[in-house]
Amino acid sequence: MDAIELLKGRRSIRSFENRPIDEKTLNKIFEITRWCFSAVNRQPWKFYVIRKKDLINEIAKECITGRFAAEAPVLVVLVGDIEEQPKWYVHDLSFVSLQLALAAWTFGIGTCWIGNINRDTVKQLLGLNEKDFILTVLPLGYPKGEIPSPRPRKELNELVIYLD
Ligand SMILES: Cc1cc2nc3c(=O)[nH]c(=O)nc-3n(C[C@H](O)[C@H](O)[C@H](O)COP(=O)(O)O)c2cc1C
Description:
NADH Oxidase; globular; 3-stranded antiparallel sheet; 3 strands; binds flavin mononucleotide; about 15% strand; single chain
């Protein structure tokens, strides 16, 4: 897959095959993900990998706009360290979430960013601390059925302003 195909072809996936992701593949995804840029290269992120079905179900229940996460064989809870990077942690975590999504896609694995989450409850389920910030839960899995058609994008002339 070339970079253009990757960047233009990725889709949010909300339905997953009942098929595990082997650990080698997961490690390759995280190996690519860790090369994401971050403010002053602080890399204030941790990836909590959930593969136990019971815990997947419990977390998925707290994903208000992402209950489909229950179908995925793997959940990655993306956790930022607020103390390590108080100013830019949201930006850094957001960037790394994209890097993870793109890395996964190169292995045929889909995900979807989930925004509305009962974060305090998920924090409790994972035994996280005050300084930990949950940005999102990314369900990972092989897409079930057809890859969704692209959602529309704004036209370039609405977006790009050349000030020549
Ligand atoms: C910050 C953010 C929050 C999102 N929240 C949700 C969500 O809660 N549930 C969901 O199903 N999709 C969510 N999405 C996925 C978007 O709906 C999706 O990226 C968008 O419609 C474009 O589709 P595409 O990713 O297939 O190109 C979110 C995406 C972003 C970047």
